[in-house]
Specification:
The complex is a heterodimer.
Chain A (H helix, E strand, L loop, with lengths): L1 E9 L5 E10 L4 E5 L6 H8 L7 E6 L7 E2 L5 H8 L2 E4 L11 H6 L8 H5 L5 H13 L15 H14 L4 E5 L7 H11 L8 E4 L3 H7 L2 E6 L2 E6 L5 H8 L3 H10 L6
Parallel strand pairs in A: 3-8, 3-9, 6-7, 7-8
Antiparallel strand pairs in A: 1-2, 1-4, 4-5, 9-10
Chain B lengths: L2 H30 L3 H18 L7 H33 L6 H16 L2 H12 L3 H25 L3 H9 L4 H40 L2 H10 L3 H31 L5
Helix pairs in contact in B: 3-4, 3-6, 3-8, 3-9, 3-10, 4-6, 5-6, 5-8, 6-8, 7-8, 8-9, 8-10, 9-10
The chains are: A alpha/beta, B mainly alpha.
Chain lengths: 263, 264
């Protein structure tokens, strides 16, 4: 489980980017974070794995076999250890383009294997087999040996998911995983992420309410650094207007094309 | 505005810089004692001297093979060790990997190193280790750091920061971030710059040979010293072939890397 308590973050000029963000996500939940651009969605997500340190507040991770841990209050070494079990799927894939898809997947376990062994790309056969299985789950095993730079956007995102699967995390975070993809690829990726929530809490940042309505179990809306909605993923027009304000017109156009949100 | 006036305005901006340039050139020539008489008189003697070189002494051909190979090996080893050291210093000189103190100290060292010519390093090394190929290799290796260290550090500073972040997000430590995130990204640059440096090092190796590192440069210097111009001409032919050959090879390999998209 991951519990976020009262996260705050401000710019030096005093402008509040995060203003008391709090929520809990349990295993079995696929939580979509929505909100207009600049609302603080990605900042919140970055706080969840310690890529960003909040000014105050806490991010507590509770797993079955260990004590609860506040990742905002641990040192660098401990943070590296905790991150080994937090999978992240990034918007821009963040894969090493000159390495093969399989090698990129293996990077998922970088923090978990001996440093000296990893420096010589000394992964074991068993690890390579597991990495191939992870690629197989996202239907990419046939392209395992391809240089990642030659893959399409959708394929790269699938490799990124395979990397997160191979990492065998206890929490999965996804930062706008479908923003760069066409609707068909976006659906495929969402279908691949959703079943992972049965094994671990999944938190994703999205810009597509119709997608969160269809695939997420819960939606959290953030606006001006505050949580303004936390509940059912199917949002009414009134609620969408509340969340997006002036951006709503755009969303309505999307709704018109893909009528998936509840009226 | 009349055409004449326009033309004058157009060329006026060149007048002052031209006058300054001429004055500086004249001043420099007076200080150095360089005269047109020397230039034209020297040209005549130069042509006569070239005539003395012909024909090359083909009999000296076999005895030039070993020094020529030595020159290539000095350049090769100098480039190999130099590029490895440059990668190390580049990692320390990149602001996105090293802390500011280490970065600034390494950048300063690289800048100082760049300011010292390889021949000067060699003379210092010869004083310490004596004549031979080893000081030549060390001088060329150190010479690489000034150029490759700076170029690679700049390349590292320009790599995708998000990729480093993604390595850190799975718990990777600094060494793992470098091996998996940084080196694969800069590998094409490492290869390309190293080949270019090898090209430079071949020329420097000839020069260092004459200063005391041995090899074909020494043969050239020795032959001129003994006034054996035909033998010197044979050494010159070797030098031209080696320099031109490595220049072509380096150009071909760099182009191949570029064509395969490794540099993009």
């Amino acid at each position: 489980m991951i519990e976020v308590k009262n996260l705050t973050k401000s710019l030096p000029n005093g402008r509040k980017l995060l203003d008391g963000i709090s929520f809990k996500v349990k295993k079995g939940e696929f939580v979509g974070i929505l909100g207009p651009s600049g609302a603080g969605k990605t900042l919140t997500l970055r706080c969840l794995n310690g890529l960003l340190k909040p000014d105050s507040g806490s991010v507590i991770i509770k797993s079955e076999n260990s004590e609860p841990l506040d990742i905002c209050k641990i040192d660098k070494r401990e943070l590296r250890r905790v991150r080994q079990k937090i999978g992240v799927i990034f918007q821009g894939y963040h894969l090493v383009k000159r390495l093969s898809a399989l090698e990129n997947v293996m990077i998922g376990k970088l923090g978990q294997i001996n440093t000296f062994r990893s420096l010589f790309y000394g992964f074991t056969d068993a690890e390579a087999e597991d990495a191939l299985k992870a690629l197989d789950r996202v239907k990419m095993s046939q392209l395992a040996g391809m240089q990642t730079g030659s893959l399409s956007g959708g394929e790269m995102q699938r490799v990124a998911i395979a990397r997160a699967i191979f990492q065998s995390p206890t929490i999965l975070l996804a930062d706008e995983p479908i923003s760069n993809l066409d609707p068909s690829n976006a659906k495929t990726i969402m279908k691949m992420i959703k079943p992972l929530s049965e094994q671990m809490p999944v938190v994703g940042v999205f810009h597509q309410p119709e997608m969160t309505a269809k695939y997420c179990t819960r939606v959290i809306a953030i606006k001006e650094g505050k949580v303004i909605y936390d509940g059912d993923p199917k949002l009414s027009n009134k609620r969408l207007e509340e969340i997006y304000g002036e951006e709503l017109e755009l969303i309505e156009q999307q709704e018109h094309m893909m009528p998936l949100t509840a009226k | 505005m009349r055409l004449k006036e326009f033309k004058f305005k157009r060329y006026r901006k060149f007048i002052l810089p031209s006058v300054i340039l001429l004055a500086v050139t004249e001043g420099a020539a007076i200080i150095c004692g360089a005269t047109f008489d020397d230039l034209f008189g020297g040209l005549g003697r130069g042509v006569l001297f070239l005539g003395n070189l012909f024909p090359p002494n083909w009999g000296a051909f076999p005895e030039m093979l070993d020094p020529a190979l030595k020159t290539i090996i000095i350049a090769f080893l100098g480039t190999l060790f130099g590029s490895l050291m440059s990668i190390f210093f580049a990692l320390l000189a990149a602001s996105n990997l090293a802390n500011p103190w280490v970065r600034n100290a390494t950048r300063f060292f690289i800048a100082v190193e760049r300011a010292i010519p390889e021949a000067v390093i060699l003379i210092l090394l010869i004083a310490a280790f004596g004549l031979g190929a080893m000081p030549g290799v060390v001088a060329l290796s150190l010479g690489c750091i000034g150029m490759l260290g700076k170029l690679l550090a700049d390349v590292i500073e320009g790599i995708d920061p998000l990729l480093i972040e993604s390595m850190e997000s799975v718990g990777g430590n600094k060494a793992q971030v470098i091996v998996f995130g940084v080196l694969p990204q800069i590998l094409p640059n490492i290869i390309s710059y190293t080949l270019f440096r090898f090209d430079i090092n071949i020329r420097l190796s000839v020069l260092l040979g004459a200063v005391g590192a041995g090899g074909i440069g020494y043969e050239l210097d020795y032959s001129f010293g003994m006034l054996d111009y035909h033998r010197a001409f044979t050494a010159m032919i070797f030098i031209i072939v080696i320099v031109f050959g490595t220049e072509r090879l380096s150009y071909y390999l760099r182009k191949k890397i570029k064509m395969e998209g490794a540099l993009t």
